[in-house]
Amino acid sequence: MSYNSLYGPVPKQIDHYTHLDLSSNSLNGSLPEGLSNLNHLAGTLNLFYNQFSGEVSFSYGMFPVMVSLDLRHNNLSPERCLRWVLCLIRGHCLLCKP
Predict the structure, then answer these.
(1) DSSP letter assigned to residue 23
(2) Is the four-CA dihedral 82, 34, 71, 30 of positive or negative sign?
(3) In this structure, what DSSP letter does residue 60 have?
(4) What are the backbone angles phi and psi of residue 84, rounded to the nearest 5°?
(5) Which end of the chain is more exposed for a tag (fewer CB within 10 A), N or C?
(6) 41-70: b or e for each residue (b if 16 or more CB lie within 10 Å)?
(7) Cα–Cα dist 43/56, whole Å
(8) What is the CB-side half-sphere exposure of residue 74 using CA atoms within 13 A?
(9) Cα separation, 52 vs 24, whole angstroms
């Protein structure tokens, strides 16, 4: 679903995905808590090149270890991103850059 000119907040009905790529759209608002509850996620959650803002909830650290989360090039709080990088919660690969 990347490069599809999607805009607005992330729909709440997203579930049962093992890989989810919403990159390079115009999605905005805060990162929804529902995305951190994707129990079937096993590969990547790509949210880069959107317009998300605010802080990254620590609930995003609850993904299984094999999940890679990419939040680069959004308007997320740099302080929280720095804490994530320093903590590397549960061994996740997190890419986060303003």
Answers:
(1) -
(2) negative
(3) G
(4) -60, -45
(5) C
(6) beebbbbbbbebeeebeeebbebeeebebb
(7) 19
(8) 30
(9) 12
**Sequential pLDDT tens for the chain (98 residues):** 788 888 888 877 776 777 889 999 999 998 887 787 777 777 788 888 999 998 887 777 777 667 778 888 888 876 655 555 544 444 555 555 55
Distance CA(96)–CA(75), nearest Å, equals 10
| Widest CA span in the chain | 33
Rounded to an integer, what distance in angstroms lies between the CA atom of residue 17 and that of residue 20? 6
pTM greater than 0.70 (yes/no): yes
Residues 1 and 81: their CA atoms lie apart, in Å, by 25
Q: Is-contact 67 90, C-beta < 8 A?
A: no
CA 58 to mean position of chain CA atoms: 11
